[in-house]
Structures are given as structure tokens and as C-alpha cells.
Amino acid sequence: MSIESQSPQVEQTNHQDVRRERLQNRLEPEIQEFRDSRQTLQLATISEEGIPNATYAPFAFDKQGYYILVSDIAAHGKNLKTNRNVSILMIEDEGESKQIYARKRLTFDTKAQLISKQSDDWIKGVAALRHRFGDIIDNLSQLGDFNLYRLVPESGRYVKGFGQAFEVSGNDLLDFVHLTEGHIQPTNK
Questions:
Q1: Collapsing DSSP states into helix, strand and coil, what is residue 70?
Q2: Is the distance from CB of 79 to CB of 53 less than 8 angstroms?
Q3: Which among 142, 125, 108 has a CA at the least distance from the CA of 64?
Q4: CB-CB neighbours of 52 under 10 Å
């Protein structure tokens, strides 16, 4: 089939694919740089009774997910034992933001996986945390009430500012969708 004989729908699809690829090539490194510049995740966990809890935890990232070391004594540590659904947020510091209402942020809905102590995944996750945060990880990981969790992203969103929100998939960040709906001015009736 020659290019001249392509239908307008095929041309539009090809144009959208090219735009999506350009967007991905531009945003993927930006998102990775933003993620890597953050040291903590804001966590939203849910108790067995359905009560939400907001907190934070230092993290390390690899292609399998976000690793956090959490005490069972903490509310979020207890919550992770009973409900593995966790929303995470990495957000631009208020002092860095040009507009407080449009802080850059990356969010994911994740599933928490408890990592068995002394397993290969435990050793790998603790090593990743130690690389980022130093000797304190050796001390914390030896405490009986601390557990290692891997938070596996399912779906997410990257917001650069007003009108610049993008859906991202999992932690591979390959499926960008520019969200163009919203911020509609109300009409006066």
C-alpha cells in the first residue's frame, strides 16, 4: 500500500504514533531524573478497618519496583500486613516549585510484596537501600520488627504543571497518554 493510498484515519493514527513516540522520548528521561532525585516516597496505606494513613519512607528503585524498609510498629507497617494496596507519591519540594498549585509530581498505584528475609530479593533490596542511604540500612535491616517491601507499580501519573498531566504505565514508563481533559471554565447560567 502506497502512502498516497492511505486513508485519513491511517494517516491520523500514524501521526498520533509519531507524536506519542516523541513525547515518550522526551518525557521518559525527565521522569527517571525526577524519580532518582527524590529520596522518599509519600505513602497512602489503608488499615484493616479501612482507615487511611499518610506517611513517608525512604526508597530505592530498580526495574522490579520501589523498595522500602518499614517497622511493624509503625501504622503503615501494620497496614501493609493486611492491605497490600498502596498509593505512592514523589513530589517536587515546595521551595523548588515555581507554582505551589502545580508542583511536579509522580504517583503510582502499587501492590506491596513482603520480601522474605535473607532471600536473594532481600539481599538485593537491602543492598539498593544501603547504596542510597549508607550504614543505617545495615542496622535497621537487622532489627526484628523491620520488613522489606517491594512496591510494584501498576498505573501512574506524571504531572509537570497546569495542563501537563500524563498517564504512565507501571515502572517501565512506556505508555504515555497526555491527559487533555479538565481545567474547564464553568459556564454562568
A1: strand
A2: yes
A3: 125
A4: 10
Q: Which residues contact 84 (CB under 8 A, 6 or more apart)?
A: 111, 112, 113
Place of cell 504505565: 169
For residues 79 and 51, give the distance between their C-alpha atoms in angstroms, rounded to a whole number.
9
Give φ, ψ of 157 to 5 degrees: -150, 140
Cα Rg of the chain, angstroms: 20
- Backbone φ and ψ of 13, nearest 5°: -60, -45
Residue-wise pLDDT tens digits, 62-74: 989 999 999 999 9
* Cell representation of residue 104: 511536579
With a pLDDT cut of 90, the percent of the chain lying above it is 65
Q: How confident is the model at residue 176 (pLDDT cuts 50, 70, 90)?
A: low
Cell numbers standing for residue 65: 519496583
∠ CA 159-164-168, rounded to 5°: 55
73: cell is 510498629
Amino acid 174: pLDDT: 45
What's the confidence (pLDDT) of residue 77? 94
| Cell (9 digits) for 180 | 487533555
Write out the three cell numbers for 81.
Answer: 500486613
Q: Phi and psi (nearest 5°) for 155?
A: -145, 155
Lowest-pLDDT choice from 53-57, 128-132, 155-159: 155-159
Question: d(Cα 177, Cα 189) in Å, to the nearest integer?
Answer: 33
